[in-house]
Amino acid sequence: xxxxxxxxxxxxxxxxxxxxxxxxxxxxxxxxxxxxxxxxxxxxxxxxxxxxxxxxxxxxxxxxxxxxxxxxxxxxxxxxxxxxxxxxxxxxxxxxxxxxxxxxxxxxxxxxxxxxxxxxxxxxxxxxxxxxxxxxxxxxxxxxxxxxxxxxxxxxxxxxxxxxxxxxxxxxxxxxxxxxxxxxxxxxxxxxxxxxxxxxxxxxxxxxxxxxxxxxxxxxxxxxxxxxxxxxxxxxxxxxxxxxxxxxxxxxxxxxxxxxxxxxxxxxxxxxxxxxxxxxxxxxxxxxxxxxxxxxxxxxxxxxxxxxxxxxxxxxxxxxxxxxxxxxxxxxxxxxxxxxxxxxxxxxxxxxxxxxxxxxxxxxxxxxxxxxxxxxxxxxxxxxxxxxxxxxxxxxxxxxxxxxxxxxxxxxxxxxxxxxxxxxxxxxxxxxxxxxxxxxxxxxxxxxxxxxxxxxxxxxxxxxxxxxxxxxxxxxxxxxxxxxxxxxxxxxxxxxxxxxxxxxxxxxxxxxxxxxxxxxxxxxxxxxxxxxxxxxxxxxxxxxxxxxxxxxxxxxxxxxxxxxxxxxxxxxxxxxxxxxxxxxxxxxxxxxxxxxxxxxxxxxxxxxxxxxxxxxxxxxxxxxxxxxxxxxxxxxxxxxxxxxxxxxxxxxxxxxxxxxxxxxxxxxxxxxxxxxxxxxxxxxxxxxxxxxxxxxxxxxxxxxxxxxxxxxxxxxxxxxxxxxxxxxxxxxxxxxxxxxxxxxxxxxxxxxxxxxxxxxxxxxxxxxxxxxxxxxxxxxxxxxxxxxxxxxxxxxxxxxxxxxxxxxxxxxxxxxxxxxxxxxxxxxxxxxxxxxxxxxxxxxxxxxxxxxxxxxxxxxxxxxxxxxxxxxxxxxxxxxxxxxxxxxxxxxxxxxxxxxxxxxxxxxxxxxxxxxxxxxxxxxxxxxxxxxxxxxxxxxxxxxxxxxxxxxxxxxxxx
Length: 959
Description:
Layout: E1 2-9, H1 16-27, E2 36-46, H2 50-61, E3 67-73, E4 80-89, H3 96-107, E5 112-123, H4 131-140, E6 146-152, H5 177-187, H6 193-206, H7 212-221, H8 224-227, E7 234-237, E8 240-242, H9 245-248, H10 250-257, E9 262-264, E10 271-274, E11 279-287, H11 289-294, H12 296-312, E12 319-329, H13 346-364, E13 368-375, E14 384-394, E15 407-412, H14 422-425, E16 430-431, H15 434-437, H16 447-462, E17 468-471, H17 477-484, E18 490-493, H18 506-511, E19 517-522, H19 527-536, E20 541-547, E21 552-557, E22 560-566, H20 567-572, E23 578-580, H21 599-607, H22 616-619, E24 630-632, E25 635-636, E26 642-643, E27 647-649, E28 658-665, H23 667-670, H24 674-690, E29 699-706, H25 713-733, E30 737-743, E31 747-750, E32 753-756, E33 760-769, E34 786-790, H26 801-805, H27 821-833, E35 839-842, H28 847-859, E36 862-866, H29 878-883, E37 890-894, H30 899-905, E38 911-918, E39 922-926, E40 932-937, H31 938-953
Parallel strand pairs: 7-23, 12-13, 16-31, 18-21, 29-30, 36-39
Antiparallel strand pairs: 1-2, 1-3, 2-5, 4-5, 4-6, 7-8, 9-10, 10-11, 11-14, 12-14, 15-19, 15-20, 17-19, 18-20, 21-22, 24-27, 25-26, 27-28, 28-33, 29-33, 31-32, 34-37, 34-38, 35-37, 36-38, 39-40
């Protein structure tokens, strides 16, 4: 029997969902519709009577202290209500709560065969025609994944998909080029004409046409997302010709440095470096841009879930110990009326991606310790989401290899239609109809399933129950099995895969990107022990087939052959493209008619500008304490609300050895010069780890490129310059790249043209911290201490926060002195390691002025500096000294008595005593003995800094 449950807050208890909706209604100017009542809805069916149903409602679905539970037979539910709208998941979309409900009911001795969930919102204010549907689409739901039911108070009947009837589909390959391109488009293959011709030629030699699943497998394996066709292409730029852009830039830096502490680079799911005598560290950063643009919560959550599985699928399995994220979204103050068609408001994007990372990371029990948020109008249609994870892996377990005869075992979640064509979707531009056309490429994750799967996998690793493991990422089983079997072969019976619901075809099973799944190569003699382990943790496992020595990928459905592919053609048959690249610097801006703000006004405005303002609203939602390893957290200082540089984690309890994480990203410098932007991003990431105690001699790097359409020569030229910049900077710093990822085609196509994102390179630095007790933070510690500025200042405000504040781009871009920068980083490390640094802060967005203000507000102290003492300031005007963003600069706080010792350590790099910490709680700067250029109250600066982003997230109008 079907039972309907309605959960409401008791009198005098407010629903968090109601509060959020009312806040957003006010922001949209629709306060008249409130107040709002929110009720959770459940529809459960099975062999259960009314007493069972009431027991479920009281013990599983509600909290009787603060909630009431109404239980009705389904046919007695009052479904029509003109003031209500009900939101529920669409058919085929994962709802994580359903599995938890099923498991909870089983523990109560009840078996459920029908589960549906939803939320009913009832608006008690002034309603006009169409309000319910408008508000539902703008605030309450995402119709890519949600079903919106205006005027309905209860849930509809559950969906019952039709069972699949097997039919082997052969796809004739057209003789004409036009036909080939139309086939690629209609099937969503994202293969170009040369690639389609290659496929046609291959199957012509075989004397047959391909099946649908063979074409899908080729499209996934050959996608830009999986094959990185641009970075491995032949590229000509002026007189320079690259046979393989990636190998000759980023890879070349790592190869030339040849660090003996690099264990595995660019060949597994993550890079691996030495940590201590017992463990290595593995690290990976991924992008999940296009899915997050369409469904922010699910896109970001599964982005994090995917990179966590990258760590689990590295070597024979790493244990995730820390997460990071970077979000790039449109301006928060954009009017909803000015958004391109089909685009979510940037604040809705940001709320969704933060919630997605929060819920996945917190539920997995992995601390999210590092991150960044950038706002620019060019990210509005195509936001960027970067997620990263660091793992700990036992020494000697960095390699894994499947052997013929090993069983192909799927572990974890079931397979559904979610995520189909994710790899090819990520390889093309977004457009106005992406939500409707590509909605199936979006996944919804279930962190609880992945947590159980992770626990089983790590236990199986320690028992040596499998030889190799990888995750089902882009392409699902197709990529996982295809990659593991590349050099040997595999036979797969697709009908054995556990499904979320009936109705999936063999091709859908093979390419689905349903989440929380891993593939293991298991020796047959270990299968029973592995299954017993899985059963003990309620983790599903299934044997899909066998690895072979045939060098062929053979797929079957209920014994019928549906694919028989040559492994060499699948992995090596892709024709290598040749590309032409160009780049020209932008025209210089006119200098006449430019009036700058007073330094005090500029500093106040910068601190509340969302790119510089506090990200506490986001950071407080993440768990930093889980696993008890975080030593320096994202927020530091007297009240734990100052913006830390890097984060430090000690992953082994009882050991003081740790690692530091830092990030660098400089898209606005890329508007002037992509080469300088990538070197500046790398230097920023290095400064972040060095400033907290990371060792520059034991620092590795990761590169993540998010770019526009590189089929356009100017976009490709910018990419070439950025890659060259990373190579040169890495070689100069002596820091190898160990992993990376590129995400191309980040453009939003409108009827008026294509909107390209800023050229965005995110550099992640992972640095060894020899002793986490010898680290420092950026907050001022004690009045009377001296402030030492290390590194030269040049007039480099091009692309700076100060220039953007004035509505300009500027011309003089910051450039890294590749000879001096490594010396500065090494000197700062020596000062910190020797215990002299009371605090240390790098100079980045907003320059010296912003850095000093941040140190003061974090430490709840004041400071006084003399700008004439700044190294390199002799020929500079006041604004340049205060707001230049010259890289490779730090402010050190030291005891006055230790300046001579510190000066000797800093010998050979520009450094000067520029002032002192004071108890006055004022930020005071002079430029010349009698010229005061800043004299600001620290509490007022702190108030601006803390409100800059929060005012948008907590209700400022979006119209």
